[in-house]
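Worked Example 4.2. Read the sequence first, then its structure tokens.
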Amino acid sequence: MKPAMDEGLVASHIAGIVPYVPGKPIEELERELGIPSGDSVKLASNENPLGPSPRAIEAARAALLQAHLYPDGGAFSLRRALAERLSVLESEIALGAGSNELIDLLVRTFCEPGDEVLTSECTFLCYELSTRAAGVSFRTVPLRDYACDLSALLEAAGPRTKMVFIANPNNPTGSHVGRRAFEAFVGRLPERTILVMDEAYIEYVTAPDFPDALRYRDRRERLVVLRTFSKARGLAGLRIGYGVAPAQMVTYLDRVRTPFNTSAVAQAAALAALDDEEHVTRSREVNEVGKAMLSAELLRLGVKVLPTQANFLLCELARSATEVFRELLHSGVIVRPMAGYGLPRHLRVTIGTADQNRRLVDSLRPLICP
């Protein structure tokens, strides 16, 4: 008798992983519901509604002419530009296929069975996915008022805690860790522990007490700062992000990452986007105007809206958010239900253009104000 297909096929720690479910693609929605092409709005994945940096598009097109050649495996030009921009050494820059890959590389490189990764509840799901895929113990502490509770993280950290992830601003709540609390935390976290600050949304931050983690590298040796080109610079589809870490840590990451992990097109586009401050400024402005408009309109509808330092809003409804999400799909509007984060009555809504935001409000009104 033959064994079942999955009997002994996969490691137990892999079998128990719940796959990451990304925001529903526009093409899939239009295909499923017969919505005319281009008549849908996606406000589910925190993408830049203005699209890519125009300079990045031009650079990507030029790079495609050399697509038959392998990319620079060391990404010399991009690493040098980032080092100059951030006032760090080139040897302290690590590149990945989005900051997601760097999260995965960090866990695989520096953690082993017996270690523990610690983070908050209701934060970026990829911290857990990467940890469990590596066969490493994963633990969370509750949020406090929808924000990362640094005191709880300190209390939970022990001799097995090899890595702590903090998303600042946090996804999906949009909250941030303030400077005073962060400074106390940095000084008290055990030296053995690697602190990973995920600042994917830093370009959208306006809070005066936000602590730029790069400024604390002299206070903590085992500090890694992650950032991305996916959000304000609009290159989510090219998958490129970066981290700043001690040079010795970067050398170990380079041993584990796959060769040519960032494409030539992505490197060229990122290099051009890095200098396109006009696009970033416009993206911030559109976000601030949209944030104010959406917050006010949703509050008028009786929707509770949490304050945010990112390009999305976490909204609490009086009914099942998954039901509302499904109903919105028939209006050609895609948002993100948060049941998978333990928030069954919450939607995460990306802040879009003025027209996209109005489309959302008009589509949502009859669903919650019948």
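Now turn to a second chain, presented in exactly the same format:
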Amino acid sequence: MKIIDLSQEIYSGMQVYKSLPPVDIKVHATHEQWNKEENPTTYTPAVYKLEMSEHTGTHVDALNHMGKAFEGQSIDTMPLSMFYTEGICLDLTHFDLEELIDVGDLKQACEKAGLSIKQNDTVLLYTDHYRKHYHSGNWSKGPGLTAAAAYWLGQQKIAAFGVETMSPGVPKISNREVHHICGKLGFTHYENMVNLNQLVDQGRFIALPMKIRGGTGSPVRAVAIFED
């Protein structure tokens, strides 16, 4: 069995979506404190305190995040079967900054790879944006889906799709509409994924969220699993 990690690290000062709170991780207690050591020469972390939003790093959006109309459909109410699925990865690396990925582009990528989208799949969209632009001024300018492409994915009755970028659509062009379509059709998406360049086939996809009461999303440890 081969397991590929698809998740970003979480650390203080990491890049987050422009309207989200910054990540702040501090030592809450050390082993020296717990051991009541006087004048310690070392400070070994025993517990960290994390301050961050639910939408930090590699994360999944709950349906209640998609719009006011979807109130009550929080992350803790979504079935775990949505986060444990078969998955495929489509090569869309020819798309550049802030370019839109449309229905025909998804169909062409499926045809080129010899793959088909099945009901309850997770569809991962490989643009190579993470490797090209993370830690750069272009990180927030990734390619994204058109509203029509998101609607088409929803019509295939997928569980979710995943992107390397900070948003599934292009901000101020299609991003809001993509979110609304996910809520309306009852599927979700993952953002800030990594290592999609290592996925060349179908496999098992797992990305379990934390059980946050009323949560609008959750960081996940997303992985792809392949049988050797």
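Notes for the reader: The domain at 59-226 is CATH 3.50.30.50 (Glucose Oxidase; domain 1). The two ends are 5 Å apart (CA to CA).
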